[in-house]
Amino acid sequence: MYAQMVDTGLKRLRGLEDMSPQERAFQQRIDDGVKIEPKDWMPEAYRKTLIRQISQHAHSEIVGQLPEGNWVTRAPTLKRKAILLAKIQDEAGHGLYLYSAAETLGVSRDELLEALHAGKAKYSSIFNYPTLTWADMGAIGWLVDGSAIINQIPLCRCSYGPYSRAMIRVCKEESFHARQGYDIMMSLCKGTPEQKRMAQDALNRWWWPSLMMFGPSDADSVNSAQSAQWRIKLFSNDELRQKMVDQTVPQAEYLGLSIPDPDLKFNPETGHYEFGEIDWTEFHNVLKGNGPCNRDRLRTRVNAYSEGAWFRDALVAHAEKKARRVGTTPRAA
Amino acid sequence: MSKEWPLWEVFIRSQHGLAHKHVGSLHAPDGEMAINNARDVYTRRNEGVSIWVVRAADIVASSPADKSALFEPSNSKIYRHPTFFPMPEEVRNL
Fold first, then answer.
1. b/e string for A241-258 if b means 16 or more Cβ within 10 A?
2. Which end of chain B is more exposed for a tag (fewer CB within 10 A), N or C?
3. Do residues B11 and B56 lie in contact, with contact meaning Cβ atoms separated by under 8 Å?
């Protein structure tokens, strides 16, 4: 999702018999639903997997501010601008909660940002697409945040305490994001034919990338199986994607918009919507760095960080100067 | 690479609350920035009327592993609760 295809570093799932006594006790706690906290012993692979997943999730929030930041100066009304700004602020907050959770696992903020800026750490594929019209703001809130909610609610119950608690806070704030997006879509679809066409165009461009957010089918994935055994991942990619489709199709119907999938069909026997084949080559290509905006997103992030260095350094200088004036020495970080 | 900022734990007391609750953490170069950032991050929805920030390094916490031993003394002292003493129905104001 925001963290896609997280590598656990393991090649096969191990049973309780294959584990050391320490690992077995750890796995038992997970199976009993006891939360793992930062000071608890944990297998190195569990720690590394969580650092990867939580930091990817955090990077996604921060990079995710950019597609919407693009339309702040061109929002149609002051109210829409203020609301969009509030959403973007929330994303910064989400990034912070998640970086904080990742840092409890023994990694520093500087290390995490360095990995992102060097192109070593990933963020969600969805944020590599451009926002071409105001209607994209609606489509993103509705489809992208909507998908995020489906992924994030189960994460509130994941085994690692700090991550699950961060997700609880995130989920409370995320619902406004989805509603804000759908509210934009409703205004456009009830407006002029031109506005409705713009809404349909945005849906056409954001539908398939949103389905791809959940990641490829992971029925055979060792990584997914391991994450499930560790109770980090509670549902498969396909299950979550199906949930998204089932709940979104009626929402599109209410708007009078059509989903850009000729194979979309409700199956009365299963009670689910069947949908067409996803083009996974596009997904892998975007993850490799060849999506429409990858280079632009990374360049913007790196520039913001390097051009903001003077401000961060000034804050430190000011803090040290103030501490000297008061006669106390600034304590080490 | 610039100097890393210290970690602060943030505690907020809500309008209707009696005590400050731990809500999360953040990095900041000093107390003033920590309060400002805590306001921006943790009170966007009127969550609080008072903010405390404490350097994480100054917090001393009990160890989760010591939980049973540390809190054992109160397990057997249920007479600290008023419900341990049933009172006759006809007796008022006790």
1. bbbbbeebbebbeebebe
2. C
3. no
Q: Is this complex's ipTM strictly greater than 0.85?
A: no
CA distance A306 to A73: 24
pLDDT tens per residue, range A305-328: 999 999 999 999 999 999 898 776
Measured between beta carbons, the chain B residues lying within 8 angstroms of A330 are 30
pLDDT for A89-127, tens place per residue? Answer: 999 999 999 999 999 999 999 999 999 999 999 999 999
Q: How many contacts does A have with B, using Cβ atoms within 8 A?
A: 58
Residues of chain A in contact with residue B25, where contact means CB-CB under 8 angstroms, are: 100
Q: Which residues in chain B have Cβ-Cβ distances shorter than 8 Å to A92?
A: 41
Buried b (16+ CB within 10 A) or exposed e, A116-154: bbeeebbbbbbbbbebebbbbbbbbbbbbbbbbbbbbbb
* Token representation of residue A212: 């791809």
B21 vs A: CB within 8 A = no
